[in-house]
Amino acid sequence: MNHFTTIFRKEFTDTIRDRRTLFVMIIFPLLLVPLLLTVVAKLQTSSMQQAEERIIRVGLVTNGNALDFPKDLMQSGGLRTIEGIPADSAQAFINRDSLDAFIVVARNFDIEVRQMRAGTISLYYKSSEDYDMVKRRLTTVIERFERSLMSARFKKLNLDESIVHAVQLEQHDVASAKERFGKTIGGMIPYFFVLFCFLGAMYPAIDLAAGEKERGTMETLLTAPVSRFQILLGKFAVVVLAGILSAVVSLLGVYVAVTQIDEIPPELMQLIMSILDVQTIVLVFSLLLPLTVFFAAILLSLSIFAKSYKEAQSLISPLSIVIILPVLVGVMPGVELDSVTAMIPVLNVSLATKEIIAGTIKPLLLAEVYVTLFALASLSLWGCSKWFGREETMFRGT
Fold this sequence. Notes:
The protein is mainly α. 68% of the residues lie in helices and 5% in strands.
């Protein structure tokens, strides 16, 4: 135990002296994550507000029909109608940004309406721009115009407008506010702690194996009167600690960012604080330990195999993409935690985190996630120890 403590202290001291490790492990998640989230939130809010307030240029072809419709457009603030443009030029004008939208009233519109049928109004727009604000604003005007036509139609027929409603639907959402919002925020949190857990463990793993081989200090360490397994455990513990610390700091960064964003309503902020109670935080962080052990064993194994620091980076860097893919799958609609997904590493953490924060986690599925993670962590640690004990691996290329 004394040997393990000595090695751990030595490796930990070397690790915190490395500026790259400190940046990825502490400075980046604690400072840049809140800054990035705050900037993105404010830019998105500002962009949506500008899209809502800007003047929309609308090409209009009525074909002599719907004479009241242009008046409705004129009365709607933020719209500027342009007539006299051929209908077959609608797409071309929108594509070259001469117009934001184009409305064409069918030639037989008035005839269809008089005969108690539906007249056709065509709306051309680009759905990829301004959060579909153009579509929403113009659709509101068209729906208001339709309601006026329907009112006139019912008045002419001397009918009550409610006659068209045969069913009055009353919807009752039995999900609590915590459950509804928890599913959303719970899908976002794994992005940060899984990614930073991996990144925080990556640089210490590279430096403590490939870095020592490159510096020529690995041979000196192996001649010490300590078993290789104790040496590996010392390095391994430092990598795990770095990964956990980075994940914790990243979540702290997210908390700082959320509290600094003024656009979040007080009621929503109160709900967020109620979701992140002590039990939830403990359960989420309990998933971190086996996940970090799993990451650390894989990272150390690749770093031990590499001949140099640069080669280790080349081997390990692509894994960050592989790690984040299961997290992306976890936020897709319809992907839920079940007996199958609970056995898929990283994905199970993402789904379990979402369920824990929403307060809907099932104990048996959570137990399956723990068993899977600890089994993979133990297996990966065993494989790493075997890898560390092979002479041809330790001195590859020397």
